[in-house]
Amino acid sequence: MNQEFIEALREIVDQKGISEDLLFETIEDALVAAYKKNFATLSNNSQDVKVTMNRETGEIHVYGQKTVVEEVVEDASEMSLEEAKEYSHKYQIGDIVDIEVTPRKFGRIAAQAAKQVVIQRIKEAERNIIYNEFITKEFDIITGSVIRKDRGNVFIDLGKIEAVLGANEQMPGEEYNFNEKLKLYIVEVKNTTKGAQVGVSRTHPGLVKRLFELEVPEVFGGVVEIKSISREAGSRTKIAVYSNDENVDAMGACVGPKGVRVQSIVNELRNEKIDIIKWSKKAEEYISNALSPAKVLNVVVEEASKSAKVIVEDNQLSLAIGKEGQNVRLAARLTGWKIDIKSRTQAQYNMDINEVVKSEADESEVIDNQVAKDQSTQEQVIETITQE
């Protein structure tokens, strides 16, 4: 080790952002291990060893450490007070004495051990730098380029790292071509022994939320608030918005002049349909809005079961339910309510049936009461005759 080595270490410290103290301490620990591996004998293998490196010159010294005791039991790790006094009169029972044991041929081995530590620390530092950069982007949008496709996965170049867009995070029907630029939502960032791992998605509702925040200044500034999103990626999304300023139309702000804002997002999502609805703290109104574009006649909610019964015109039933139940399914997820939809005719039929059932029940009750009354009268007559 020499001064040039020390200067090289300090340059690495500056470039990679590694702690200088930590780097030197780690090198010294590695030199201890290297000494024990190459120079320790069976007789002194249990001896405590300390290695120091001069941080200006790079000079290395190895010390065996022994504890001062009244009676020596273990020669490798203990020494008597009398022997300790030969090194210095200041030593007392219980003190640690450092005895230099630096081998003459230790320099080459030390350099090799130090090199391995430095390489390892550089790799760790680079991993940490990348992790720290991407952890700040978690739950945000990032743009990457398609590198390759393999076994259904799409590999994305994010600059300093590759990310894998798994099959379940890809939008149905979306094609990914080499060098194509993609906007991706960072779902998770992990710091592993192999480096930072970045989980990305094209299907996450968070992608839609961040696109609106980037495209709509009122959303980015907090004037318009996104209350909820339900999404079936590649097909349709419902987004509930609310304005914190009565002078700002939440839906209008998201749509934009001539629809340019929402159309930009639709284009990014490969023509995925987006329903922008007005959020309301009144459950009936919120549920009615969520079933857009269908027009709702009536909503009755049951708080205990968090369920709602909805009535629409006959010609609005299929629209309210949606293809394969998509519209009502998205509305239920958006609002958090179970939604049962019936047409006016179905509701009227059920009402009529209920009236008939109620009428029959009432009639049955009258008959039962009359039978009971007649039976009571007969019992009274029989009792009178018996007494006579």
Automatic annotation (TrEMBL):
Q: Which InterPro entries match?
A: KH_dom (IPR004087), KH_NusA_2nd (IPR058582), S1_domain (IPR003029), TF_NusA (IPR010213), TF_NusA_bacterial (IPR030842), TF_NusA_KH_1st (IPR025249), TF_NusA_N (IPR013735)
Every S1 motif domain range: 137-201
- Which ranges carry the K Homology domain? 233-292, 304-376
Q: PROSITE patterns, alphabetically?
A: KH_TYPE_1
CDD domains to which the protein is assigned, alphabetical: KH-II_NusA_rpt1 (cd02134), KH-II_NusA_rpt2 (cd22529), S1_NusA (cd04455)
Q: Does the keyword Cytoplasm apply?
A: yes
Among PANTHER family, the record links this protein to: TRANSCRIPTION TERMINATION FACTOR NUSA, TRANSCRIPTION TERMINATION_ANTITERMINATION PROTEIN NUSA
Name under which the protein is recorded: Transcription termination/antitermination protein NusA
Q: What species was this sequence derived from? A: Clostridium estertheticum
